[in-house]
Design brief:
8 strands; 332 residues; 18% strand; 52% helix; alpha+beta; Tetrahydropterin Synthase, Chain A
Length: 332
């Protein structure tokens, strides 16, 4: 009896424990189902909110199309509500964009072939026009910049392009802005980066520049010589007005030479002595440096009288001699 009661008691205990364990497992399954449902609901809500809401950043604007018709104004920045399947949103960047213009072959007004490349800085001023007015405003702006660059280069000569590049940039900017304002694009700046010239033209320009520098050097040297001659002329006039100034200048020159360590000996000779030596001396001048006066040249002797021809000599050589006055023919 005791053994049977003990077994029945043990069986009841196991049955109770199994029921408790099954209850715990059932409660865990319920909790897990609840958590899974919450996760799925959150995921669905996230997808729904992402479909219903659109985030537009500060540098963007959203252009709305409802049933294919565009709204009047762009929206943003911030969180924007849209109806899925009804509204279509196109985001437009409002920041300044950079477009590189590839090297363009152009001919200048003076028939010089060269290649020019540039860079264009622009931004979208009207998002609605940028989306509706043109298919791709970036590509359109680049093509307009390329065409305008070739057109502007053809209007100017090469020297003007190299010397007034800033004016060319302003003219190019004005022309590109005039063409892009129709689809809401504003041009901020245009810069010509490089101008590639043929090698022969570069060498010719180098020779021209070298010749120009030589010409300027010669002109500057000639101008300096002219100014120096004027100053020397004024100095000579002032020295000539004062006889003692030349001697003082000679002594100053000797003092300057004496300061240098050299073996040069200078013997100053007064200029007055040289002038005295060159001056013709008088008849009573006893100076050893006096130049005697020139001697008078004697007159040339008279010419000798002409000699009359001898008749016999003339007859001997077979010439006829005219008869003189008072002579008569005599027989042979």
């Amino acid at each position: 009896m005791r053994t049977g009661s003990a077994c029945s008691h043990l069986g009841g205990t196991w049955h109770t424990e199994i029921m408790v364990l099954s209850g715990i497992l059932a409660s865990d399954a319920i909790v897990g189902g609840i958590i899974g449902g919450v996760v799925v609901l959150a995921f669905v809500l996230m997808i729904g909110f992402r479909t219903l809401l659109t985030v537009v950043t500060e540098y963007q604007r959203a252009v709305f199309f409802r049933f294919g018709r565009i709204r009047a104004q762009a929206k943003g920045p911030g969180l924007i509500f849209r109806i899925p399947g009804v509204d279509r949103v196109v985001k437009v960047n409002l920041r300044v964009e950079v477009v590189d213009i590839p090297p363009q072959s152009a001919i200048t007004a003076d028939n010089v072939t060269l290649q020019v490349d540039a860079v264009v800085y622009f931004r979208v001023a009207d998002p609605v026009k940028a989306v509706v007015g043109v298919d791709n405003f970036r590509l359109a702006s680049q093509r307009i910049a390329m065409t305008s660059l070739r057109s502007i280069i053809g209007r100017h000569e090469l020297d003007n392009l190299l010397a007034h590049r800033e004016d060319i940039n302003n003219e190019l900017k004005a022309q590109i802005a005039l063409s892009t304002q129709g689809f809401g694009v504003e041009v901020h700046e245009v810069q010509i980066r490089d101008i590639s010239l043929p090698g022969e033209l570069v060498r010719a320009m180098s020779r021209q520049a070298e010749a120009e520098r030589e010409r300027r050097a010669k002109v500057i040297a000639a101008t300096g010589e002219l100014e120096a001659s004027r100053e020397l002329s004024e100095a000579a006039t002032m020295l000539a007005s004062s006889p003692g100034s030349m001697q003082l200048r000679s002594l100053q020159t000797l003092a300057e030479v004496a300061t240098e360590h050299n073996s040069t000996l200078i013997f100053p000779i007064p200029i007055e002595l040289l002038e005295f030596m060159r001056r013709p001396g008088a008849a009573d001048d006893a100076s050893p440096f006096a130049v005697p006066p020139p001697r008078p040249v004697p007159p040339a002797p008279d010419a000798a009288p002409a000699v009359a021809p001898v008749p016999g000599a003339a007859g001997a050589i077979g010439m006829s001699v005219p008869a003189t006055d008072g002579a008569e023919d005599q027989p042979g």
